[in-house]
Amino acid sequence: MTILKSLLYRLGLGLGGLALFWALGMLSTNEFGKSAAIMATALPGLGGLCLLLRARPAWLSTTTLAVIAVFFLDAATKGFLRDYFGLRPNHLLVLQAVFNTNPAETGEFFRHNWRDVAEASAVFTILMTAVVVLERRLSRAEASRVLSPLRRRSKIAVATLFTGFVALHLNPTMAKENPVLYWPIRYLDYKGQLAHADELQRQLDRNMAQRADWQVRYHGPAQKTVVWVIGESQNRNNMSLYGYARNTTPMLDTMRDDLTVFRDVVSSEPATMASLMKMLTPAHLDDPDAWTSKPDLLMLAKEAGYRTYWISNQMPNDGWLGLVANRADERVFINKGSGRGENNFDGNLLPDFEAALASDAPRKLIVVHLLGAHPTYDMRYPDEFARFDNTDDSVMATLEAQGRSPWVRHARNDYDNAIAYNDYVVSSLIRKTMAATGASDASLLFSSDHAQEVGHTRNHSGQSVADASGYEIPMLVWSRDAVDARARAALEQRPYQTDRLDHTMLGLLDIDTSYYNASHDVLSDAFVPMPRRINGRAYSPSGHAVLPAEAG
């Protein structure tokens, strides 16, 4: 056997493994092509270099296994992240989730997704074991016979391959696909994005000195309380309030006549930070960077004379959301742990909420940020709300008929338990607002940041960029001012997307400003429905979003 044939045999092992990752859907065609191109130069180039330097035979075997292991591990990781997020791992949403975390959240993530991690790990282990076995056989065969030395032509071929491997890295796109460089480069990109965002925020703070441009005017009563409850990861299709087969919202159901329940609302994004950035500021899908030069809702409320409160069961955030929360006059973060995996239930916010309601400020804006149904679902409710554990009902029968796995069916039960507990929390917030505000002007709006896919359209539980179920959220309003049944029924059918929710909130706050547009206020008589988009595609309630074609 010639040295060159030996190198090509080893390359065949690596490319064959990558092809299997592609066949299993863990690599896209684009990713497979780029990884194969790098491996085709890296493996024979680096292996041949060992031979040119007359290294020990074991070095060739070690180099081969190391290169293939790096590529296979990269493919397994990308496959897992693709399955979880529905996107390539270099998408900003994925990078935010990967890098903006901590040990507690990482532990929670693996606890919730251990089956998917185990599946990707099993594919990696099986393929890598096969390569190790075949490599050892080849090494033993080479040891029993004399390989012909590298001829001049073979040396030129090896040198060309190694040079090609180095030259590929002159192309930034290809360099980023090198598994060894993939995450370090993206981490540096992500840190650069954070630094850029910090600079933009400093610029925003400087711009905010020009308050005259805001043209803020309050035109409401002397006494006014507005509560905005921001839910987390809640899908309206899992609420009996919206017709779900399970009785997951019994308390809100009993309050139905007091609520305006919007039937067709979608989030603008499938992830918390990107969604809230558009809900809390003038930024929207057509102008996502407007938050860098225009005031957010808390700024405008304070300018209008409101005392502002931020009460949260989310972890204190040192990023953009932390900057917004820190503008509130009073801030309470009850989650003292290091992540959203803490077993701190949303009901523990109620005493702090009551204290805010009891404040003697004439005008109050109270923002309540819940943990809602954020994964891991079974950490979001106390034991007495485990109502759907081991339930054998029509929901389970439907999921089983659709071929959903046992763990996705189990996740659905946990998720519905979390929805039931959220029903208790949100209904309690509404009742406390009713009781504390007496006859004064008061209103409460509840909306979720985004939704969850829990076996609705595929065998997956968690966030989803690709599925409509990742965006279809509940939104409801309680107001002291009664709305007659006919007008309320018409309001509830209005289609809406939450990137314009700041306009609705400004309307509830009775604030006129240059940043308010009544046509985007879903409660206004001047409201005009707009086309909605999820994941860059037109949304309709009867259809599902599809992933757009991946860019190179």
UniProtKB/TrEMBL annotation:
One of its GO terms (biological process) is lipopolysaccharide core region biosynthetic process. GO terms for molecular function: hydrolase activity; phosphotransferase activity, phosphate group as acceptor. It is found in: Cell membrane. The chain crosses the membrane at residues 7-24, 36-53, 60-81. Keywords: Cell membrane, Hydrolase, Membrane, Transferase, Transmembrane, Transmembrane helix. Residues 224-511 form the Sulfatase N-terminal domain. InterPro entries: Alkaline_phosphatase_core_sf (IPR017850), PEA_transf_C (IPR058130), PEA_transferase (IPR040423), Sulfatase_N (IPR000917). It is a multi-pass membrane protein. The keyword Transmembrane helix applies. CDD domains: LptA. Its main location: membrane. This is Membrane-associated, metal-dependent hydrolase.
